[in-house]
């Protein structure tokens, strides 16, 4: 068990946790955003990040520091915290991407971790290979073997209190990701970054990103803090947290600002295209788009970067409250409605409802059934899987209406899409307190019919009657033939 990470609250696979960083003598509340600091080009001073934005942890690149003579000498002389004027925790990247893409310099894991230790890093990183998406299986396997050797090399180094990352690679091969994660979790390393997903996010392949993270999570234990490398756009944070990611790093706040790009929870907009600023952060509440455009380049970049951070940290706080309130998936669904690629990511997330269900709390806030995808949530799956635990009488009425008079049936259970049947005495229990539409959609009715089927198949000796109104044909078709259907007013042959 890893005693430096503790889960406090959970919803779906998302969690609020506490990450102990011994060398910094800090406890970081997760989910946490680590702004990326390029020491050669500061957009916002780290001291301001801590004082004005509440940043508890940031990330910088030890390879850039090591290869820049003036920075190397300053970092070795003063220490990383003094050089950056930051009192919080500092994670250092090894520069694996730069080494693989741009450099002919060979740096070993031992050399870079010893350098990270020497300059005072609190969380260090070995030299892995960030295998990009869509490569051949042979390449992914070969590079994964190199990464796993780097983890072994890192594990053998005596670094005192510094925590060490164990990157999880494997490209877009889910089984390799899962195996890589299980291998990483079996080491004595501390934090588990899911690497090389930036190309997926840059090309809006959020569904493939979900598949990579879901595979990694299957190999990692619940006590493993997960860092999603390169994920810092506010529009996708709720989705990433719901998948079980705890740490994020954002260079986007500064890079996008330099390109005149304005971040929102619904996507990215060009400052030149804005007539109004749809935000009430300190930057936007005191200025107009014209005001920002009139600034010199450096000032405009700084102000945009500040807005980008404000909106990102606001979203993180919103996510944490959603976890506490038990409505994280409702937030994810709202964000998914903002972009088709995000909706693909949400649908991919629900493809793993069985995986989410293993971590999802049994009781939480009100379930809102607001779309066809709501019918695929882990709460619905859990109810269907547990129907065989319920005791049923010999003659049972399943009804969308009230309990009938007389003794024709031994009992009458409610039927509510998307859950299907449940005893009336559970009506005040989660998730049956759900807020559902008065006009159920096809997906909700189909899911309810699946619940009916699960109950019927678990009780072959019971006589079932299903009293419903206005169900769609394909929902009716999923009800077992031995169930008597009554009070059916209309059967639709079309869609929702």
Q: What is the overall number of helices? A: 20
Query: Rough shape?
Result: elongated
Count of DSSP E strands? Answer: 18
CATH homolog superfamily of the largest domain: Queuine tRNA-ribosyltransferase-like
Taken together, the total number of domains comes to: 2
The largest beta-sheet arranges its strands as: 6-5-4-11-10-9
CATH architecture term of the largest domain? Alpha-Beta Barrel
Question: Structural class of the helices, strands and pairings?
Answer: alpha/beta
InterPro entries: ArchSynthase1/Queuine_TRR, TGT-like_sf, TgtA, tRNA_ribo_trans-like
Active site: 93 (nucleophile)
GO biological process, one term: tRNA wobble guanine modification
Protein name: tRNA-guanine(15) transglycosylase
What are the main properties of this structure?
single chain; 496 residues; alpha/beta; TIM Barrel; 2 domains; 6-stranded parallel sheet; 16% strand; disordered C terminus; tRNA processing; ArchSynthase1/Queuine_TRR; EC 2.4.2.48; TGT-like_sf
Description of the structure:
By secondary structure, the chain is α/β, with parallel strands linked by helices. The protein has two domains: 5-356, TIM Barrel (Alpha-Beta Barrel); 372-493, no CATH class. Helix content is 41%, strand content 16%. Strands 6-5-4-11-10-9 form a six-stranded parallel β-sheet. A five-stranded mixed β-sheet has the order 16-15-14-17-18. β12 and β13 form a beta hairpin. The protein is elongated, with a radius of gyration of 26 Å. It catalyses: guanosine(15) in tRNA + 7-cyano-7-carbaguanine = 7-cyano-7-carbaguanosine(15) in tRNA + guanine. Exchanges the guanine residue with 7-cyano-7-deazaguanine (preQ0) at position 15 in the dihydrouridine loop (D-loop) of archaeal tRNAs.
């Amino acid at each position: 068990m890893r005693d430096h990470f503790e889960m406090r609250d959970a919803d779906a696979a998302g969690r609020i946790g506490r990450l102990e960083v011994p060398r910094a003598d800090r406890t970081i509340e997760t989910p946490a955003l680590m702004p990326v600091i390029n020491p050669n080009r500061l957009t916002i001073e780290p001291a301001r990040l801590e004082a004005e934005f509440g940043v508890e942890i940031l990330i910088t690149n030890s390879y850039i520091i090591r290869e820049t003579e003036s920075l190397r000498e300053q970092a070795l002389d003063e220490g990383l915290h003094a050089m950056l004027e930051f009192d919080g925790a500092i994670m250092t990247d090894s520069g694996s991407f730069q080494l693989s893409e741009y450099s002919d310099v060979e740096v070993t894991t031992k050399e870079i971790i010893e350098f990270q230790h020497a300059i005072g890093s609190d969380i260090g990183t070995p030299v892995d290979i960030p295998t990009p998406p869509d490569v051949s299986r042979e390449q992914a396997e070969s590079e994964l073997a190199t990464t796993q050797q780097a983890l072994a090399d890192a594990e053998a180094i005596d670094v005192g209190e510094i925590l060490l990352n164990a990157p999880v690679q494997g490209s877009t091969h889910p089984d390799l990701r899962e195996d890589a994660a299980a291998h990483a979790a079996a080491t004595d390393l501390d934090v588990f970054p899911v690497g090389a997903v930036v190309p997926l996010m840059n090309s809006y392949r959020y569904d493939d990103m979900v598949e990579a993270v879901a595979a990694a999570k299957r190999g990692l234990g619940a006590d493993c803090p997960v860092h999603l490398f390169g994920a810092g756009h506010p529009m996708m944070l709720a989705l990433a947290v719901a998948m079980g990611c705890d740490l994020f790093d954002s260079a986007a706040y500064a890079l996008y600002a330099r390109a005149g790009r304005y971040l929102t929870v619904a996507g990215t907009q060009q400052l030149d295209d804005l007539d109004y600023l749809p935000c009430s952060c300190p930057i936007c509440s005191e200025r107009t788009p014209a005001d920002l455009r009139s600034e010199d380049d450096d000032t405009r970049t700084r102000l945009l970067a500040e807005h980008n951070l404000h909106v990102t940290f606001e979203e993180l706080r919103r996510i944490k409250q959603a976890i506490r309130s038990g409505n994280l998936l409702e937030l994810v669904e709202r964000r998914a409605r903002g972009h088709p690629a995000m909706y693909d990511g949400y649908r991919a997330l629900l493809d793993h409802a069985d995986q989410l269900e293993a971590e999802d709390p049994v009781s939480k806030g009100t379930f809102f059934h607001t779309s066809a995808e709501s019918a695929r949530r882990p709460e619905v799956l859990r109810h269907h899987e547990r129907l065989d635990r319920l005791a049923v009488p010999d003659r049972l009425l399943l009804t969308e209406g009230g309990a009938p008079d007389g003794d024709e049936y031994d009992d009458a259970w409610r039927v509510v899409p998307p859950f299907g049947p449940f005893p009336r005495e559970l009506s005040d229990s989660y998730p049956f307190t759900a807020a559902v539409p008065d006009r159920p959609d096809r997906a909700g009715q189909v899911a309810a019919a699946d619940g009916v089927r699960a109950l019927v198949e678990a009780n072959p000796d019971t006589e079932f009657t299903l009293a419903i109104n206005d169900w769609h044909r394909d929902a009716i078709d999923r009800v077992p033939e031995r169930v008597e259907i009554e009070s059916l007013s209309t059967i639709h042959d079309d869609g929702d």
